[in-house]
Amino acid sequence: MKRAMSCPVAMMACVAVIVVTAAPAAAAEPVCAKSEIRLVNSMREIAQPYHANLEKGGRWFAAWAGLEHYVLQLNQGDSDKQISLMRLLLATNPRCTVFNVEPNADLVVKPMIDAANRSGAWIVTHWAHNEGLHPFDGNDHWIAHIAVDSLGAGAAISKLLVDAIGRTGGVVALQGRLDTDPARKRFAGLQQVLLQTPGVTVLDQQTANWDRTAAFPIMQTWLTKYGDRINGVWAANDDMALGALEALRAAGLAGKIPIVGVDGIPEAIAAVEKGEMIATVSSDAYYQGSIGLAMGTCVLTGQVPLPASWPKENREFYLKLVVISRDNAAQYLREPEPAAYVDDWQCDKLWSRSTGKAF
Amino acid sequence: MMPADHQGPVGSTPAATAQELRPWTPLLALIVLCLGFGLAEPGFATSENLWTIADRSAIPLILAVGTTFVILQGSIDLSIEGVMATSSLTFAMSVFNSRNGLDLGVFGLGLATLVGAGLGLLSGLLTTCLRVPSFMVTLGVWSTSAGIALLLSGDQPPLIKDPMMRALGLGRSLAVPNLFLVAVAVVLLGYVLQSYTRFGRYSMVIGGGEDLARLLGLPVDRYKVLAFVFAGFLGGLAGALESARIGLGHVDVGGGQMFATITAVVIGGTSLGGGRGGVLQSAVGTLTLAILTDGMVFVGINPYAQKAVQGALILLTALGATWPLRHRLRIVK
Amino acid sequence: MTPASPTDGIAPIASNDRELRSYAGQAARRFAPLAVLIGLLSALAAIEPSFLSPYAVNVLADESSVILILATAQTVVILLGGIDLSMAAIASLASVLIALALPAVGPSGIVGVLALATLIGAVQGFVHTRAQIPSVIVTLAGLGMWSGLALTIAKTTIPVTAGYFAVGWLTRSSFGVPNSFSVALAALMVLAAALHLLPFGRHVYAIGMAERATLLSGVRVGRVKILGFALTGLFSGLAGLAMVARTSSGSPTIADSLLLPSIAAVVIGGTSITGGVGGLGRTLIGTMTITVLRVGFATIGLDPAYEPIAYGVVVIAAAALTIDHSKAHIVK
Amino acid sequence: MTVPVLRVEGLSKSFAGVRALDDVSIEVGSREVIGLIGENGAGKSTLLKVLAGVLRADCGRIIVRGTPISPANVAAAATSGIGIVFQEQALLPNVTVAENILLGHERRALRGGFYDWRKFYALAAKQLDKLGGGISPSALTATLSFAERQLVEIARALAIEEHTRHEPIILLDEPTSMLDANGTETVLGQIERLRRRASIVFVSHRLDEVVRVSDRICVMVDGRCVATRNRATCSIADLERLMLGHKLDAECQQQAPSPTLGPKVRLSVRALGRNNSYRGVSFELHAGEVLGIAELAGSGGESLCRTLFGVERADAGEIVIDGQPVRLREPADAVRLGIGYVPAERRLEGIVGGLGVRENMTLAHLDELRRGPFIDLAAERKLVKSWIERMHITTPTADTPAQDLSGGNQQKVVLGKWLIGRKLKILILDHPFRGLDVGIKAEMFALIREIARAGLGVLLVGDTVEEVMALSHSIIVMKDGLVSGHFPASAAKPSRLQVLERMV
User: Fold this and answer.
1) Residues C190-201: pLDDT tens digits?
2) Is position A177 within any domain?
3) CB contact under 8 A, B8 and C3
4) Counting one residue from C and one from D, how many pairs have CB atoms under 8 Å apart?
5) Residue D18 — very low, low, confident or very high, per pLDDT cuts 50/70/90?
6) Cβ contact, residue pair A45, B251, below 8 Å
7) What kind and span of H or E run contains D216?
8) Is chain C in touch with chain A: ≥3 Cβ pairs within 8 A?
9) Which residues 6+ apart lie within 8 Å of A116 measured at CB?
10) What is the pTM assigned to this prediction?
11) ipTM of the predicted structure?
12) Residue B245 and residue A216: Cβ atoms within 8 Å?
C-alpha cells in the first residue's frame, strides 16, 4: 500500500516544486493592461481612524490612476482570515493583482508572501515581519517591505516627553499588545532615551493592548497609586494616550501632565493642538495605504523594471515619520487633499520617503 | 447554555442542598483577595484606590446584572460586545457630537438603551420562536450588531461633545464615581426584579425546571424573551456609559466583556445550568474580578499572568462550591 | 429514594412528543445541514463562479482544516453532554511550544508537545469528573490559564527558526488535496470509526443520552469522559501544529479566533448541544459551512462592512434549519 | 348519590401500543370521595394525569359540571377546579415552598406588580396549616425531606380551593405512599376535612386507607374500571379478589417451588448499615435462591439494593461475594463481580431511551462481545436476537429506540441486559414490576423463577407482599431501616398476615 502510494506522492511533490519555482519565472515579463490590474488593500478593520485613512489613501490612488478594480479586505483582527482572504482572491487573475498589506500580526507575512510567490500575485508589506525574512531572498513577487522605525518613533516622542518634564521625574508607560513588533520596539525606544536621562524613571508599565478603554482604568489605578509622582505619560499609540487623557480629565489633570503617543490620528493631533498631549508621531496612513499599490501598478504597467532587479535598499526600507508637536499640529489638523500625494505616486518617486535600508 | 441535570444527589442531606443553593465561597474569595492585596501593597487599601476599583467595576456590574437573568433561566447571551458597540455608536451620534447636528442629551442615552433592548428582543424572539439554542442565536446577533456598529462608525468615530454626558462618564459626586452610582442603582434594580417580581421569580422557576413550568402553564417563552430584552437593555446602557467615559462612539467599546462578564457571573456562583445564583452573587463575582485586575496592576504583576490567575480563581471558587456536594450519582455535564 | 427531579411527573409529555414526531420530518432534518451547505455554495458560486474553481475549493479545504480538527474532538465532548472552551487556548499554547521545540530538539519535540496537550486535556477531564464541576466551568478556567501560560512563555510571535521541514509538508498538497486537510479528514475518520466500532463510542452516546442509566449499566463513565477530554487536548495540539505549519511560527493568540467557529461548526452540523445526538459526519458538513461563511462573503466582493451582518444572519438561519428539535423538547 | 360534578366517559389512552386506559367511565358526585384502587400499571395514575391535563386522552370525554373540558396543562385543569397531587413529586427544588404552592397563582400576593412576601407566605402558610406539618413557607424546597415535600405537593393541590369559585375536584395519586403513620393520618384527616367542600379522587395501594375514607371505590384492572363498590357494601378481602383475582390463582397462589438451593452462598451481608437509610442488615443469599424483601416504600430496602450495586456507599458492615469480602466503589465494580441491578426508576436509570434495544441489551457487557478492540457487531446481533426471542420482547426491530417500547418490554430489555452477561451471579430486582401490565408481569415471574433455577442468587424488593411471597424462597421484612422479620427458606412459609404485621 505505502509503496504504491509513495511514487505518485513523489511525482506530485516534483510537480508542486516545479510549479512553485516556475511561477515567478513565468511571471517574469508580464505587463498587464490597466483594465486587468486589481488593487487590494488588506488591513485589520476600518473602524479606527488610522485604518480608515489607510483605506482612503488606497481609494484615492485607484481613482487617480484610473483603475476600477479596487478590493478592500478586512480581517477583524483574525490573522488566519487575513491569509485566507488573500489566497481565495487569488483564485482569479493573480498575475495582475497587487496587495498592499497591513499585517494583523508579524506571522501573517510569510504565508502571504508564499501565496504571492506561488500564484504570481504582487505584494507590498508594511510595518514589520518575522526576522530572517527578506524580499530580496528569492521572493520575487514580494515587491517591497516598507518598515516603520518603531524604535525611532518611540525614541522621538520619548525625547519630547523627557524634555517636557525637565529631564527629571517619573513617567508611566502604556504598552501595546506585547506580541507585536511595534509595541516592543517603541518601548525599546523609550528605554533607549531614558538611558541618556538618568533623571527620569519609569514608575510603572502595563499593556493596554492598543486599546483606549483598557488604558483608562490602568491610568486611574496609577494615579491613585503614584499620585503626583507621575510627571508624564508615555503611550505606545494615540488610542491609549487618549484613554489616559480621559483618566486625567476625570482627575481634573487634563493638560497638566504631558502625554505622548504614536500614530497621529486626528483626535490626538487635536489634543496636541489643544495642549492636552505634547506630541505624536505620524507614519502618514494615507501614504501607507496607497504607496504599495502605486509600486505594484508601476511594476505591472512596466514603468519600472521587475523588483527582482531593484537594489536591496529599495526592496526593504524605512518610512519617513513626522513628529507632530504643538508648533506643527495645525497643518495636520485638516484631512489632506488627494492631490497632495500625487507626487509620491509617480513611478520615479516611489522611494521619496525612504530613510534608508531596514535590514 | 449547558444542560444541567437538576436531579439532586441521591439521598442528599438538606444541608448539602442548602449549601448548593447559597455557596459562600465567592464572598470568601473576595475578602481573601482584598486582604491579600491590602497586605502586599499598603497603597491598595486607600479609599482613593477603592473608588478607582468601584469605577473600574461599574460597567462590568451593569453587564453582569443583565446576563444573570439570562443565565438563571439556563440560557446564555454571547451578544454583549456587539450590543455595546451598536448602542455606543447610537449614543455618540445622538448626543451632541462631532458627526452630526443631533443633541438629544439624555434622550440619546434612552435611545441607546432602546437599541440594546431591541437587539435583546431579537435574540429572545429568535430563541423562543425558532427554537434555536441561545448560544447560536446570540452568536449571530453579536456578529450582526457588531456589523451595524461598524456601519455607523464609518471612518471617523464620532466624538462626544456633550459636557453633561462626559460629566456623567467621568465625574464624581462626593468622591463617588457617577458610573458606580449608576451601577449600584442597576444592581439594586436587578435585586428587586429578582426577588420581588414575577419576572425574577419565574426566571428562577424556568431555570429550575422549564418543562415543569410549561406543564403548569406558565408563560415561559414570554419571560425568556423578557430576560434577553433586559440583558440587551443593560448592555445598551453599559455601551452608552462606556462611550460617555472615553468620549467617543467606538466599535471595540465592549472588547473582551463577553468572557469577562460570564466569568464574573460564574465566579459569583450562578450556575450556567440555570436556576441557581442571583444578582448579588454576580455582583460579588464582578467585584472579585475587578479587585483582582486592579490589584495585579497595583502590585505590577505581568498582565498575561493575570489571565491565568483569573482562570485559577474560577476553578478554585467552583471547587469550593461543589466539593461538598460530590456524590456517586450526581450528574454534572 | 431519589428526591424529586422537577421533571419527574412529566415524562409522558416527552413520550407524547415522540409519538407525534413525523418520521418524514426526521429524514428532512437529517439532510438539512448538507442542504444548507449546498445551498450556500451554489448561491456564492452563482455570484462569483471562481468560488468553485478547483483552486478555490482547494484553498477552502486548506482553510477548513484547523477548524475541522478542533470541531472533530469538540463533537465527542458535546456528544458526552459537555463542552470544551479551552481547545483554542491549548492550541495556541501548543503552537508556541512547538515553535520553541522544533529548533531546540527537532521533530521529536512535536511528539512531546502533543503528549503534553493530551495530558492537559485529560487533567481537565479528571477535574471535571472527580470534583464534579461542570465542564463548561473547568474549561473556561482552562481557557484563562492556558492562554495566560502561553502569553507568559512567549510574549510574542515565535518564528520557527529551524526544523520547519517537520511541519512544512502540511502546507503542500498531494493529489491536489492540501495535506493539512487530508490529515484533518483522516483524524476525523479514525475518530468516527472509533465511535462506531469501539465500546468507547457506544458509551459516549449512551452517556450523552442518559448518564445515570449508563452508569447503572456498569460503564465507567468517569473514564470515558476523561478520555473524551484527553482527545480534545490531543486534537488541540494537532490544531496548534497545523497553525505552526501555516504561519511557520507560533503565537500565544494564534488560534483564539477559532474557538467559537469550531463550536458553531458542530452545532450547525446538527449535533445537539445537549449531547447524545449527532455525529462526526455532521460536523464535517458543519465545518465546511462555517468555513464558507468565514471567507465566502469577502470573495463574492460583498462590502466588508456588511460582512459581519451577513455572517450573523446566515449563522442563525443555518442553525434554525439544521437543529433537530424532536430530540430535545427544551431549548436553552 | 348527588349530581356528578365530574363525569368521565369512555376515556382511552395508549402508550406505544400498550393500553393504559381502556374505555374508562366513572362519575364523581359533589363532595364525594372516590377511591381508586388497582395494581401498579392498572391505569390509576394515567387516569389522574389525563384528568389533570398532564396527558391527552386518545378518545373519550371529561365533563365538569356539564361542560366538557380538555385541559391542555395543569393550570388549565386548575381553572376548571381540578387539582392534582402527583405520585412522583413535581416541585421546583430551587425556590421557596410558598412559590411552589402558589405557582401560577401569584397574582393574589402581588401589590402593584411586586411580591408582597408577607402576604405571599401567609397565603402559602394557610395551605400548609391545613396539613399542620410545621413546614416553613419560606424554606427552600430542596432543603425539605421527602415526606415534607410530599406534604407541600398536597398543599399545592389544596390551594385549588382558593382559585376557583366552585368546589374543587382534587386528585390524590398515592399521597400517602411515602409517608409515615403520622403523615398518613394528617393526609387522611385532610381528606375527611376536604370532603365537606370538595370532591376527591383518591388513589392508594393501601386498601385499608381507601376503605376508610372513600364513599365509593372503583377497582381498576388493566386500564379498565372492572367494578365499583360502595364503602358500606365491601370488604378489603373482596376488593383484593377483584383487584388481583385471576392473578391470585395465576401466580400469587402458586407458591414458589420448594427451595432447590445450592449449598453455595453467593452473597452474604454482615451488619450492613448506611447512615439514615438502614442499619444492621445481615443475610445470606444462596445460589438458586430468591430472597424477597417485603417493606413499605422507603423502609430501606431500596437503599440496600443500591448499596449492594455500588451506587450508594455503606458506612458499616461488610459485603461478601463467593466468600470474598468486596469493596464496591462504583456500579462498574459490582458488574465485574457478576452483580446485575434492575432499578426501580426504569425510565431514568434502566434504559437509555435514545439507544436501540440492541445497544441497550449489550451496554453492560460490550467487553464480552469484542473481537480485538472492536465490537463484534455480527455476534452482538445474533446474541441480542436470540435473547429477544427467548424473552419474547415485542419490538419492531432490534434497533428500535428503547423509549418507543412499552413499559413491560422496556423492563424485559433491562432484565435482558443482565442475563446476557456470562459472569452473572447475583441479580438485584428493585421493584421490577412497577407499572407492568398483567401479561408481562406473569412472564417476568416465570423468567425470574427460571433464572433462580439456573443457579443465580436473586434479591427482590417488590411492590406488593403478594409479589414477594409468590416469588421468594426466603423473605426479609424491613421496617424503618431495620430488619423486622426474617423467614429463611429452611423455615416454614410465613402467612401473608405474618409478613404484613411486621411491615406496619
Assistant:
1) 999 999 999 999
2) yes
3) yes
4) 120
5) low
6) yes
7) strand D216-221
8) yes
9) A99, A122, A123, A139, A141, A142
10) 0.85
11) 0.83
12) yes
